[in-house]
Write a structure and sequence with these properties.
437 residues; alpha+beta; five-stranded antiparallel β-sheet; 17% strand; elongated
Length: 437
């Protein structure tokens, strides 16, 4: 069984298309083709019901941490039970992601990504210590060429590293933690103690920090210089223009504190100082001139910051697929789809193979088939579907041995039930899902 560093387990076709690809292979007769479709239909129904129970468990545990909850609880949950259900929720969530062929981004890799320069030119900071739990998974680690505007009339083509799908789970620490940080509740974009889920598409690897609600944004050094240097240049003529008033104010301060000697050194007449109105007018003139200039520079800064925030908002709005509880539904559907596709491929190749196959040989066979027939490179995960097929078992009657959809001989060679028996087996299990009589 080959292992590939540049391939993913994700199968980039829908379940319906996988069925059609198998049928177009020409290994099944017309009658068997109909039976194969029926087998795939009942298999999908069986797994849809199975994954529904996973969804209900996730929703039940998440209700205690959902920031969007609009329902009340009828029982009080102890702190210990709350901790246990939080751990169970995170573990189940990761399990579903892995069944949907998502790959974990380790925290050290995530920290390195957060430190890299973003496509949006701003200074960002995310405090990872704010979280009790931080889980980030991705699928589709690809490279794509995009055009960036460098000047008003010039664009530059660059290659960026994208994640086709990104899933993020964040459990914030409690209120006491943020109070110790002297963070004001009204300034927080999240609720302490709650859990947030995000599902995005086509996110640049080095823009991951934009997905975090506790991100802090500020100007880069380049932007500060672009504001600071013009500010200094513009301040010089303002100071020169108000220099006479400034001199008069300084002279007045010296006169009323240390006497008249220093006043004479500044070439200001004592009569001007004794007359308070010119001093007041000079003070107001200076304050208005410098204050107006400062307000203009601050307005420029705020306009730039608003533009940055709009870029971030646009990025997240158009790439968002789901938030919080709705993420569960999307991922359960993806996991159900992936699991069915893998089982269908394994069953089909064992059903039509002219030679016995071990799991490793079957893995290579499916990868080669996808590459040669459809020019699609995948790193097929054989262990999951083999285990799932082995678990689909039933007893024909009380005195018979258990019959499974897939079995292995002592040498590890796999075999599956014929189509008619396979359909009957799943149908028998399905009929006894609820036994109320």
């Amino acid at each position: 069984m080959a292992s590939y560093g540049d391939r993913e387990a994700f199968i980039p076709y829908s379940r319906k298309d996988i069925i059609e690809l198998c049928l177009e292979d020409g290994q099944l007769s017309a009658s068997d083709a109909d039976k194969f479709r029926e087998f795939c239909t009942i298999l999908a129904a069986y797994y849809h019901f199975k994954f529904h129970s996973y969804l209900e468990s996730l929703k039940d545990n998440y209700a205690l941490f959902n920031p969007d909850a609009d329902t009340k609880t009828i029982t009080e949950v102890s702190s210990r039970d709350l901790t246990d259900r939080e751990a169970e929720l995170v573990a189940d969530f990761q399990h579903i992601l892995e069944r949907a062929n998502y790959v974990l981004i380790p925290e050290d890799s995530l920290e390195r990504a957060l430190e890299e320069e973003s496509l949006i030119k701003l200074k960002t900071k995310v405090d990872l210590n704010d979280f009790d739990h931080l889980v980030c998974y991705c699928r589709g680690d690809v490279y794509e060429k995009i055009k960036l505007k460098k000047l008003y009339f010039w664009e530059k083509e660059v290659t960026i590293n994208l994640f086709s799908r990104v899933v993020l789970l964040l459990k914030f620490k409690n209120q006491a933690y943020f109070e110790r940080k002297k963070a004001k509740s009204k300034n927080l974009n999240f609720t302490p103690g709650k859990m947030y889920l995000y599902f995005y598409k086509n996110i640049p690897k080095y823009d991951l920090e934009l997905l975090f609600p506790n991100i802090k944004i500020s100007m880069t050094l380049k932007d500060r210089l672009l504001f600071g240097i013009p500010a200094i240049g513009a301040a010089i003529p303002v100071i020169l223009k108000t220099l006479p008033q400034l001199t008069l104010i300084i002279a007045a301060i010296f006169f009323f504190t240390v006497g008249t000697v220093n006043v004479l050194d500044l070439n200001v007449r004592e009569e001007e100082i004794r007359d308070f109105m010119p001093v007041l007018v000079a003070t107001l003139s200076l304050a208005i001139a410098l204050g107006g200039f400062a307000f203009k520079q601050y307005s420029n800064y705020k306009s730039k910051l608003i533009k940055f925030r709009k870029d971030v908002t646009d990025t997240l709005f158009f790439k968002n697929l789901a938030n919080n509880e709705s993420v569960f539904q999307a991922l359960i559907d993806a996991a159900e789809e992936e699991e069915c596709k893998e089982i269908i491929l394994v069953y089909y190749h064992l059903l039509t193979s002219s030679v016995p196959l071990t799991p490793d040989e079957l893995d290579d066979c499916i990868e080669t088939w996808m590459l040669e027939k459809f020019d699609t490179k995948i790193d097929f995960d054989i262990n999951g579907p083999i285990g799932n097929l082995e678990e689909i078992c039933d007893q024909v009657n009380e005195n018979s041995d258990e019959v499974c959809l897939l079995k292995k001989d002592p040498g590890g060679v796999c075999s599956v039930l014929p189509l008619d028996e396979a359909k009957s087996l799943i149908d028998s299990i399905w009929d006894r899902v609820f036994l109320y009589t």
